[in-house]
From TrEMBL:
GO terms for molecular function: beta-galactosidase activity. It catalyses: Hydrolysis of terminal non-reducing beta-D-galactose residues in beta-D-galactosides. Its EC number is 3.2.1.23. InterPro entries: B-gal_1-like, BetaGal1-like_ABD1, BetaGal_gal-bd, Galactose-bd-like_sf, GH, Gly_Hdrlase_35_cat, Glyco_hydro_35_CS, Glycoside_Hdrlase_35. Residues 374-487 form the Beta-galactosidase 1-like first all-beta domain. This is Beta-galactosidase. The active site is at E157 (proton donor), E239 (nucleophile). SUPFAM superfamilies: (Trans)glycosidases, Galactose-binding domain-like. Residues 510-566 form the Beta-galactosidase galactose-binding domain. It comes from Streptococcus minor. GO terms for biological process: carbohydrate metabolic process. The keyword Hydrolase applies. Pfam families: BetaGal_ABD_1 (PF21317), BetaGal_gal-bd (PF21467), Glyco_hydro_35 (PF01301).
Length: 594
């Protein structure tokens, strides 16, 4: 049983201990990649791994908990311990992490009197229920119980959000009441307002900083703040940003390897650090978040490569070797090794074996819910993906007017299963004209949830509830009587999908394309999406995530763990682009390379 103490330095079993850590997020990697990624952490000479625990993934519906597959954190923790590594765990209600709604579950939005991340009884009750399930699983892995966990975080960058110390104390008390005995800590920006509001230094809870440059100046700010309260604790950066995330329609953000290596070396000489991230991962499914802006939020891409020292697909970069070099320069006796380098394979092109028109099959693949007026996704217990609203109206045989009120995030309109228009951002709410020659007119509105804000003042704002909320007007009247079809693109939905139609000559509706791929040498691969428009792709019932032709990425990464000898790929394309083939290549494809 290891004894971890925080004095003027970190101590492990009575000896000074420097934390050299890297963030490896279990939920953004396939489990068969955990061991090799942890090996590559050790190969740097590092001794600790850090991870969040995202509430929304583990409790996707209130009271229903999930820990299988990518979410089996106990298996991950056991592996960390078996490999002789230590662990920093961040089981906070909010994680940011460029994650949908900052890792908080979407069903919280159904509680009108709830205010998030403050000392609100409703919010604390839901956090407490989650913690009742979570902490009995975490406690055996504490270092005080012979496990790898050195310390746990109370809240994440709280000083950048609010100044409710009673809320922070409530969260810390919840953790202690449920048996946490390892040290607790907070992590915040290093400016004075963030430290004053986000820390619990007055309660003797350890504090750390988050930054990605100027290590001397930032650690000095931490030291000066501690000194005000009579503390002389070790200096620690919990998130040393070695790269950055990316958003749809913007260039890839890069950082020079030697620039990073210099700052890492300076920081290691001063104190302790956690590289955020050590390895990039993938925003599988619809877990990617969104950057808040005054008018139009900016959704983030499926890849969470982060320009990290190890790529999304497991290849050490120039950054990795530069950090390894400066670590050895600073600590000549440290044990290092050669990293494991993952391989990817291109399997070529595969033809379509069948298609399905969403507007035809929606009642088959998901439950039909009839309500008077359009309801938000969360109101019909849907967290992510798409929602289809349908109504049949009487044709008055004149030009009709149509508009959606208060909808998020992207709407596509169809009249009698023929495409009418797409509205996004500032266009939503603009009036459209249509006409038809049938007695009854079928009106379909497909709304895509592009991801909820994960940071800043819009957390919990009305715009974070997705779908149509204000209603759909036809000829200046709010139309009553709408069928709702939740389309989460999960395995349950895909099991009901039959793609038995040939490819249409002309595409006028969202379409599913089915592909069969046989493999005798299973390796990682990439789907080249550069010829597609917008949508998402699954393999063997698992949703890999979104693609979008605005870039900067035009691929989806397919880890080998999701593949088998005979595979089924489903491409869901929403932009009336005919998908002629599935092309599997051996490297990622970017917008500027096409």
């Amino acid at each position: 049983m290891a004894q971890f103490e925080i004095k003027e330095e970190f101590y492990l079993d009575g000896k000074p201990f420097k934390i050299l850590s890297g963030a490896i997020q279990y939920f953004r990697l396939h489990p068969n990649q955990w061991a090799e990624t942890l090996h590559n952490l050790k190969a740097l000479g590092y001794n600790t791994v850090e991870t969040y625990i995202p509430w929304s993934l583990h409790e996707p519906h209130e009271g229903q908990f999930v820990t299988d597959g990518l979410l089996d954190f106990e298996a991950y923790f056991k592996l960390v311990q078996e490999m002789g590594l230590h662990l920093i765990v961040r089981p906070t209600p909010y994680i940011c992490a460029e994650f949908d709604f900052g890792g908080m579950p979407a069903w919280l939005l159904n509680y009108p009197n709830m205010r998030f991340r403050v000392n609100n009884p409703d919010f604390l009750e839901k956090v407490g229920n989650f913690y009742d399930w979570l902490f009995p699983k975490l406690l055996p892995y504490q270092s005080t119980e012979g496990g790898p966990i050195l310390m746990m975080q109370v809240e994440n960058e709280y000083g950048s959000y609010a100044e409710d110390k009673e809320y922070l104390r409530s969260i810390a008390k919840m953790m202690k009441d449920r048996g946490v005995t390892v040290p607790l800590f907070t992590s915040d920006g290093t400016w004075i307002e963030a430290l004053e509001s986000g820390t619990l230094i007055e309660d003797d809870i350890f504090l750390t900083g988050n930054f990605g440059s100027q290590p001397k100046e930032n650690t000095e700010a931490l030291a000066n703040f501690m000194e005000k309260y009579g503390k002389k604790w070790p200096l620690m950066c919990t998130e040393f940003w070695d790269g950055w995330f990316n958003r749809w329609g913007e260039p890839i953000v890069r950082r020079e390897a030697e620039d990073l290596a210099k700052d890492v070396k300076d920081l290691m000489a001063i104190g302790n650090l956690n590289l955020f991230l050590l390895r990039g991962g993938t925003n599988f499914g619809f877990i990617s978040g969104c950057s808040a802006r005054k008018h139009t939020d900016l959704p983030q891409v499926t890849s969470y490569d982060f320009d990290a020292p190890i790529t999304e697909w497991g290849v050490p970069t120039e950054k990795y070797y530069a950090v390894q070099r400066v670590t050895r320069e600073l600590f000549p006796d440290i044990q290092q090794a050669e990293p494991i380098i993952r391989q990817a394979k291109g399997y070529g092109k595969f033809p379509v074996v069948g298609t399905a028109n969403l507007l035809e099959v929606a009642p088959v693949i998901t439950e039909e819910i009839l309500l008077d007026y359009p309801q938000a996704m969360e109101k019909i217990h849907q967290n992510h993906g798409y929602i289809l609203y349908r109504s049949m109206i009487k044709n008055q045989f004149h030009e009709e007017r149509l508009k959606a009120i208060d909808a998020h995030d992207r709407c596509q309109f169809y009249i009698n299963q023929k495409y009418l228009a797409t509205q996004y951002r500032d266009e939503i709410g603009d009036e459209m004209l249509f006409s038809a020659d049938t007695e009854q007119i079928q009106v379909d509105v497909l709304v895509e949830n592009l991801g909820r804000v994960n940071y800043g003042y819009k957390l919990g704002a009305p715009s974070q509830s997705k779908g149509v909320k204000g209603g759909i007007m036809i000829n200046h009247q709010f139309r009553k009587g709408w069928q709702h079809y939740a389309l989460p693109f999960d395995s349950k939905m895909l099991e009901k999908l039959e793609c038995n139609r040939p490819s249409p000559d002309k595409v006028e509706a969202p379409t599913f394309y089915r592909f069969e791929v046989e493999m005798d040498d299973i390796q990682d691969t990439f789907i080249d999406c550069s010829a597609y428009g917008k949508g998402c792709i699954s393999v063997n019932g698992f949703n890999l995530g979104r693609y979008w032709n605005i870039g900067p990425i035009q691929y989806l990464y397919v880890p080998s763990g999701f593949l088998k000898e005979k595979n089924e790929f489903i491409v869901f394309e929403t932009e009336n682009v005919r998908v002629d083939c599935l092309q599997l290549v051996d490297q990622p494809v970017f917008k500027d390379e096409v």
